[in-house]
Hints:
The chain is an alpha/beta fold. The protein has 22 helices and 8 strands. Strand 7 (370-373), helix 22 and strand 8 form a beta-alpha-beta unit. Helix 1 (13-24) packs across helix 6 (91-105), helix 3 (48-59) crosses helix 6 (91-105) and helix 13 (216-235) crosses helix 16 (265-275). The chain is globular.
Amino acid sequence: METHLADFIRGTPEGNEAEAILRACVHCGFCTATCPTYQLLGDELDGPRGRIYLIKRVLEGETPTAITAQHLDRCPTCRACETTCPSGVRYARLADIGRAVVERQVPRSWHARLRRTGIRWLFTHPWRLRFILALLRPLRPLLPVRIAEKLPARQRLLLQPALPHPRQLLVLEGCVQSVATPVTNAALTRVLERLGCGTQSIAGCCGALAWHTGAQDQGRARMRGLITRVEDRLQAGAEAFVVTASGCAAMIGDYPDIFRHEPPWAERAQRVAAALRDPSELIAPAVEHWAGIGAGKRIAFHAPCTLQHALHHAAAVETILARAGYLLTPVPEAHLCCGSAGSYSLTQPEISEALRTRKLAALTSGAPMFIATANVGCELHLAARAAVPVCHWLELLEPANSLP
């Protein structure tokens, strides 16, 4: 694709990066076949090809409008287009660059700013979220359905004494996950103990919510804080950095791209990303420890977009579950987003709900006993309307808390 970038970005590190990405796109349109919003809305500008065109025009100097921002906002950044693209276009990175420019040039309404500020204020601080949930849970019957369904049920942890192990792994506590679904990391701890590994919890936000709600500077600050904490633990002898929420893991995996123009943070981000491990990478070589635990139970696996299109570990998780004895039911349109997409369900509720309805129909088409997933956002979003229990897939390996 031919480009003529405007003076404000031509020759800058971001401009050079965007130009290379734009020139890789041949506008073949293969991406539209796997884009959830294009499939739902049928508008070229609500698909990757159209959004790339909008970003190109903005970077070439055309003044963006509220309509431009709306089409970019409607993208859940699921990255299915990247999996489909035969030219290897790095759409998500281009979207980050384009959105930052549009965010600076198109003022948002006061209620949109309030919503996004509220998301960052609440969900990136576990103690605030814990306090709000404690207030709202008793009032659930009195609340509007859209609010009540978003309140996760309280999870009770089966506390077990930590055992000493020579091998130590870092585990990200997470923001929402540490409050809403703490059994996920508890299950990981038991899994890793079977493998002879101890765990060290590490607090801190990955920066994804700020990054994707228009506050990239705030997101970078949170990323730098997490990078520093992880580096300190790695230097003290921790072997790797395990993240159970695929959304957070995908964000951390993108740190090298985000900081590539900011030495020495570029090198530090690369070290942390290199230490990142998905639980499936640790479990797959020793899956015989869980042989038969599934006892033929029917489950549907929802592979979050971040797991399948960013991290590329979906097949490994499915293989682990199958070898553990679970019967995986077929899931049509498995590549499509469930509509959670971090804060997307809060900023684009109508589209998010339509995507969830479509996803739940696909997930339950094979009559599963459970729906398993790999990201806290997807888990909570699907559980609010699912007719069967929804859990993190690690809970199916160590079902000590609540699974029947």
